[in-house]
Structure formats: C-alpha cells, structure tokens
Amino acid sequence: MQKINLQILKKLFYGLHYSAIIIAMVLVSSCKKDLNQINPNAPTLPGNVINETGITSYALGGVYWNGFNYSDGWLGNSYFSLPWGYHELMGDVAGGGAGSNNQTTTMGVPDSFTPDPVGAPSTVISNPSPQVTIIRSFNNASQTSNGNNALYYEWTNMYAMIDAMNTAIAQLPSVSGMTADKDSTIKAWCYWWKGYAYAQIGTLYYAGLIEDKPNTIVSNFVSQSAMIDESNHQLNNALTALKAISSQSDYATVIAELIPQQNQVGLGLPLSSAQWIGTINTMLARNILLNKLSPFVNGNPAAAITGASIPAITSADWTSIIAYCTAGVQNGDFVFTGRSAPSNSYFTATGGTVASLSAFSNQGSTYKVSERLVQQFQPGDNRLANFTTANGTFTGDAVTNSTRYSLVDGTALGLTGINILGSRMVGGLEIYIGPTYEENALMLAEAYIQTGKISQGLALIDAVRTYQGAGLTALSPSLSLTQALTVLTQERLAALAYRGLSYYDLRRWGWIYGAAKGGGRWGCNLIYNSTVYTNAYINYNYMDYWDVPGDETEKNPPSATSAAVMNPNY
Prior knowledge:
Blueprint: E1 5-13, E2 20-28, H1 45-48, H2 52-69, H3 83-90, E3 94-96, E4 112-114, E5 125-126, H4 131-138, H5 141-145, H6 152-171, H7 180-204, E6 207-208, E7 222-223, H8 224-243, H9 248-258, H10 273-289, H11 315-326, E8 337-338, H12 354-358, E9 367-369, H13 371-375, E10 387-388, E11 406-407, H14 410-413, E12 431-432, H15 437-450, H16 454-467, H17 481-495, H18 502-508, E13 521-528, E14 531-539, H19 550-555
C-alpha cells in the first residue's frame, strides 16, 4: 500500500451523538506540496480542503477513519470487529469467548433452549441474564465508560460518518479546480455513505436522528421507519448525482482517489458509475427486505409473529425488491470492500474484523464459530473447507457458545476455488462493506420464491453456489414452497456469513422473537453437557430494534415532538 500521511482535523462538537471531540481523519497521499503553506501539525478544514486532493482525502477519511475506525479501540480495532460483532453474535454466526469483554459473551445468548423438544432431555435450559435485561441495565453513559454498553458503538461510528459527509458537502463550494462531473462524483460519494449510515442506524435502532448540516445539535428523534426513508432519500440523491455525470474520465479519476489503495484489489477495484448505480439499487432493496417481517418459523411459510416493531412484508414490497435487484449488483461487478494493509490501515489483519478474530483455534479465538452456521452448509459443500474440528470442542460461559469448529485461515492454507471466510494475513481477507452479487441474487431469489416463481428463485440459489465454488448438485425446480424457503434460508446464512446481515435475516424470518410471540428457531445443532443435539429449539427472545443509546439521550434529551427512544414492545 502507498504510504499515507495522516492529518487530523479537530472539531469541537456537542450533542447529536454524544458530547465529545470528533476527530475527522484526513488521509493525504502524495500531496505534501499542496500543504506546505499550512502547519501540518495543526491542519484546518478551510486551509487544507481547498482543492481536489484535499476534498477527496477528506471524504475518504470521513468514511474509512471516522465511520469505520472512530473510537474503535475496544474489542478489535474497527467497526467491523465490535459493532459488526454484535450483528454476528445475534445472528448466531459467532459466539463470544469465555470471559470476553464488551458484553460479547452475553449479547448473543438466547433466553432459553431445549436440547431436544421431542426426546430426552426435554427440560428447558434458561439464561439468568436475558438480552433485554442486559440492554436496559447497561444502556447509560457510565456503563459505556466501563465498556459494557453494546448500544453505543454502532451509533457512534455511523454518526461520525454522517457528520464527516455533511462537512464534505458543505465544503465543496469552496473547493477550486473541480469540474462539474468531479463535483457530482464527490456528492454521490457523500450521499451514498450517508444513505449507508442511516440504513445501519434505522435497521438496528428503534429511533434515530436526521442530520443535514455538520456540527449542529438535533434533538428531534424520528422513528425507525423514518430513518429508513432518510436512507432511501440519500441513496436516491446519490443516484441523481451519478446519472448527471457525462465525463467518465473525470468520474474515474475521482473514484480512484476516494477508495483507499489497500482496497483496490479483487472486487474492490474502483467501480464504474453503472456498477455503483447497481450497488445503490441493491441497497434500496436491502432497506425493504431487512425491515419487513416475512415469517418462516419451523418450516411454516404462513407463520405469524405478534408484537414486532415492524410490519409484515407485502406483495408490493416483493415487486419493488424484484425491480431493484434486477437493476442491482451483477456477477463480476466491483463493489465496496475493505482490506487490511501493513501500515496506516483503518483496520488490522488480525484484529479488525469478526472473521479475523475467529480465524484461529477455538480454544483461543475471540469469536467462536457457531454450530448453527456450519449446519447451514450441506454435506459435500466445498465451502466446508473453511472450518476444522482439529482443535477440539470449546465450551464457553454460555452453553450455546460451545462448538466443535474453528474457522481456518483460508489465505494461509491456500484455499482456492471457494469463498474464503477468514484470514489473519495482511490483505488476505476481502470484507464486503456494501451489497454484493450474492446478496443481490439471493434477495431476488427470495422474492421470486415468495411470488410463486420458485424455479427461477432456485436457479439463482444454484448460481450463487456455483459462484462461491460450493460444488453442489443443482436443485430440483419442483421443490415446494416450504422446501424452497428452507434452502433459501440455509443459503443466505451460509453465503452471506460474516457480512453483518445474518441477525436481520433471523429477525425478519421470526426466529429471534420469543416463543410467546410465535418465534424461535427449530432443528438446531447444539452442544449441551458434552452431547451434540441436532434437533434443538432455541428461544432467542432478542430485542428486535435496540433502544437509542443512553449516551445520546442523557446528553441530548429528546424534544417534545420526538418519537419514542425506547422500544415499547419489550
């Protein structure tokens, strides 16, 4: 990777997401001559972000350092290690290690489980510290300072990104030497990442804040659905900016400056404006799919969930998903990815991602491979090479964390021809920050299956398996709706593991809801008292949308017109 000269712009900032000094990282490479007139130890926004190099460096740093690295020296060292870690814990992709900090041992533990509902023992094993209790007990600034408030981290990262993008947009009119198409490219960048950040907030929290200007105090909290609407608004702004570009040469120059050099490998090469439009369409489809209920509990396509925080998906929603995905990410498209680098990297090879923190012996890794994840890969699937049982069985503080499996370092082992899930080698793991071909194809597959076009949906599942090198026999086009949805759920959990999506799938399928609400997960592999059970019932009973972090509401009390900041369904 090209060496990067890190410049820090300091902005005193109160309210919004917490009372703190926000540090906006500006990554400046090969531009020393442009900064000679400014003291490099005390850079300022007006003094440095005055030309193309300055604005692209600022916009790059606002995403990858503010958004994906700000204040992330907790468990691991980036947004992809701890905030994403909670996604994977609740999605039952990973388990927390014994004694892990930041509530990673507790946040992914279900309320109860039954090792075998139809056999012995049929006793329900209960968790004395349910997730809802953990969330409500530790959701305050005092517990955040002790590293116990899981709700703090995602909120902090995403609002740091939003503020940086607002600052970049506000600074654009003062930047000299920019053509209209270069200006539009930077605007598209800022709108895209604001749309991404609002989607992350709106898909996880019960309420949020909409910020249009940098360094302003906003106290009017809006509903989760309004946050998704704002995400869609920003994504459509990005589409408008991209479609206005006439010079692909100007576009190509700027997009290459906005993406870190370490990312520009494999599928992370600078995407064309058409490919970026496809990514945005897939994101618009994701915003619908992940925030609507489409219950499929215990093999029942007609299952119903009560007391959920979101409505059921409609036929119109499926039609919209089909339209967006048809124009979404295609096989071979470049997408937004991340890779580690030897130095000056916004995440490290060994500690920056859930996957890297898992790709080690289960006896010592921070995160543990879930038995339920491995269960999704069918016998004979070549992708099972990502896992090994050579390290024995890990038995954790919570019995549902127990696992026979470890995630291997696929790059170190030289695995080829399959989708590699884990690596601890520098640059060895390609993580997918935004939507991908597989996600787009599987959303389209699910929409087809749910609208009666089962054979078309199954063909897309086969295509994803081929793309990832699974080597499985093609599915029969005559599967029933229940059989097709069973395969679809298995393939989404297998193909999209470690991408921060699995929890949202379990939620919309109804699996994370308590038994009293009609939820739960059936037919699970689980180790209890040294016995492997293959038909366990898990009653997760997780909070479907998190309360707003107490750090926010304590320092920035909600206005009289605000939406509820605590989920009333729990």
